[in-house]
Amino acid sequence: MKKYASYLLLLLFFTAHATLSAQKTLRTLASPNKQTAVTVGLNKTGEPFYKITYRGKTAVDWSRLGFNTKEYNLHSGFKLAATKITTHDETWKPVWGEVAQIRDHYNELAYTLSDETGCTMIIRFRAYEEGAGFRYEFPLQDCKTKVTVTDELTEFQMTGDHTAWWIPGDYDSNEHVYTTGKISAIDCAWYNREHAISTQHIVKMKNVQTPITMKTADGTHIALAEAALADFGALHLETDNNALKFKASLIPSADSTVKSVNTMPFHSPWRAVLLSKDAAGILESKLILNLNEPCKIEDVSWIKPQKYVGVWWEMHVGLATWDLEATQDMMAATGREVKGRHGANTENVKRYIDFAGKYGFDGVLVEGWNIGWKDWFGKWKDEVFDFAKPYPDFDIDELTRYAREKGVRIIAHHETSSAVPSYERQMDAAYAFMNKYNQNAVKTGYVGKIIPRGEWHDGQWMNNHYLRVAERTAKNRIMVDMHEPVRPSGWHRTWPNWMACEAARGQEFNAWSTGNPPEHECILPFTRILGGPMDYTPGIFETRMNTYDPKKTEVVHTTVAKQLALYVTLYSPLQMAADLPENYEKRLDVFQFIRDVPVDWDDTRILNAAVGDYITIARRQKGAQNWFLGSITDENPRNFSMKLDFLPAGKTYEATIYADGPGAHWKENPYPVNISKRTVRKGDVLEIQLAAGGGCAVSLVVK
Ligand code: NOJ
Ligand code: CA
Q: Is the pLDDT of residue 617 over 50?
């Protein structure tokens, strides 16, 4: 009962005891087909509240809106000045994506409030069939010029103790293992002790990151997220375990009392509530993308989804180093033993270029090519890297020539070590250098604590930096993949050259830590990936690290067949084949799936899904009739009968099925992959057997 006390109070506020004037402020906005409805109103002290219903039931109960700021009262004493409802129905084509076109269909309410000075704040709500979004807008006005936000008061009142999938509200990293549990049990204290990573700042034990996804007792799925994060601290949520409520908790700036400073006119990012009757609907939702602005790049012809290989995994497994000169330093800083030589040497890079050319990959990522690596890790040092100065054993002229000859491009790597002003000073020169050497894609990185000191990876200053990089790379016709940024919020609609981000716990953790539990890849698409593609780097065939060093005990927590299926289930327009060329050459029959699988799609069907348990997805190749299917499970083996209803009638397909082989198990026996071929048509049934931590990948090619 205690849990619902605040809810009951609010209910009374708006019904029995509501003043006539408060009641008069109530407005309801329904989605076009009335599946979702948002009601908003002011209580008698002029505080704004909202609630959301979905399919006739309350999804978010009466919840507060507004801000604490240094200058103004932006949470109470408001009067309703105007309301306007409009409707919008448009279909747009993403430059790349999971589907060829996206419908953006919503009703919108501009709820304009005025304060005692006559100044206005608009709360703009959009109601979609699959949820709702709202944001705060501050038009240009004489009475207000600058707002220093000290706290966002937005709340999300849940209606029960839902099951939630969450990671802690870390100011500096999102590379965490997910926890599954009730809202009433959310607590980062034990998490902080057991899962610490190298750069983290978890100070509020009840804070979680968005997107957080929940399942209610009746199976409704709710994800709380943000869209179009810009010029603001990222949205984390503070949990009230008793009231079953989340309150906005923005990442502060270097001045810890300040969450963001904004100048009129401005608006907050969108706060998004994704709603679905089942887990699959959350994966299908385009709400976050739709809340972002249309593409700002006029000529997008140079933006190309692609697969790549790279001088990368060999550093993570300890066979090579990023630095040419200070291996000892690096070992001391990371505590990892590294044998071997500098990875980015000309001869070794040529080996990868040969491999990419031979097997049809577009790019070769090269990490450790530029000077500065001796100081990159754990030193919190300014001026570490030079982004236009290769190490002497990396012959960039020769490698550019060689790559051109083989029809591939080198993907640049800009590890900033979070010395961000230094990177900003060098950006123009660095991108001009890339253009000179025929490079049109860069992977950036933000390892370690941020400079300017005191800023956080998820704070307003850094969020503006990531956008500056997206804009500046676009200007130079460069595609970008960011590691260690804030988690994405759909900006790739606006800046489609921003192909992917890491911004979560990627494959690399399997090489040198306790790893990613088998359920991890069954949670990512419902949480982190809702905001945009992830550079997860799948495709590891040699899953046991003791292959490289008998003392090592780390393993990849999947079977090899699951590594293949991830190319379909973890959507990204940029996918790495992350393992070493020699490991692929040993299993060319299995590798064939990675060669064949596309990275751009016209259609996507979620065939089944349960958060944290399993996902089966079929996708149709861009501009073709071929389909690809991926099915993955957590630590539990599962069998599915999949009706191939998504295939068009009247066509015959050759299915190549890459299944977990006899006795496969992610830990005990990860290697066996059973490859079989079958002729199939629409309506045929595919029996899929997934091992513990296993998967199945299928290519369906028109005959
Ligand atoms: C962390 C990134 O996630 C990884 O991909 C990269 O290799 C290292 N930093 C070095 O920049
Ligand atoms: Ca990382």
A: yes
Give the pLDDT band (50/70/90) at residue 117.
confident
C-alpha–C-alpha distance, residues 70 and 149, integer Å:
7
Mutate to test the pocket of ligand 1, among 309, 319, 376, 415 (most ligand atoms within 8 A of CB): 415
Percent of the chain scored above 70 by pLDDT?
Answer: 95
- Say yes or no to pLDDT of 297 above 50: yes
User: What is the sign, positive or negative, of the torsion defined by CA atoms of 95, 98, 103, 108?
Assistant: negative
Any atom of ligand 1 within 6 Å of the Cβ of 175: no
Distance CA 298, CA 295 (A): 8
C-alpha closest to that of 607 among 597, 617, 593, 619: 617
Q: Is 693 in the pocket of ligand 1 (CB under 6 A)?
A: no
Ligand 1 contact, 314 CB (< 6 A)? no
The ligand 1 atom at the shortest distance from the C-alpha of residue 413 is 11
448 in contact with ligand 1, CB cutoff 6 A? no
Task: Answer yes or no: are the C-beta atoms of 411 and 448 closer than 8 Å.
Answer: no
Measured between alpha carbons, how far is residue 663 from residues 188, 642, 666, 697 in Å? Answer: 37, 22, 10, 18
| 464-509 pLDDT tens trace | 999 999 999 999 999 999 999 999 999 999 999 999 999 999 999 9
Given this model, what pLDDT does residue 578 score? 98
**2-290 is a CATH 2.60.120.200 domain:** no
Which ligand approaches the C-alpha of residue 368 most closely? 1
Q: How far is the CA of 447 from the centre of ligand 1 (A)?
A: 7
What Rg, from alpha-carbon coordinates, does the chain have?
25
Angstrom distance (rounded) from CA 152 to CA 205: 18
549-575 per-position pLDDT tens digit: 999 999 999 999 999 999 999 999 999
**Residue ranges per structural domain of the chain:** 2-290
Question: Which residues are designated catalytic?
Answer: 508
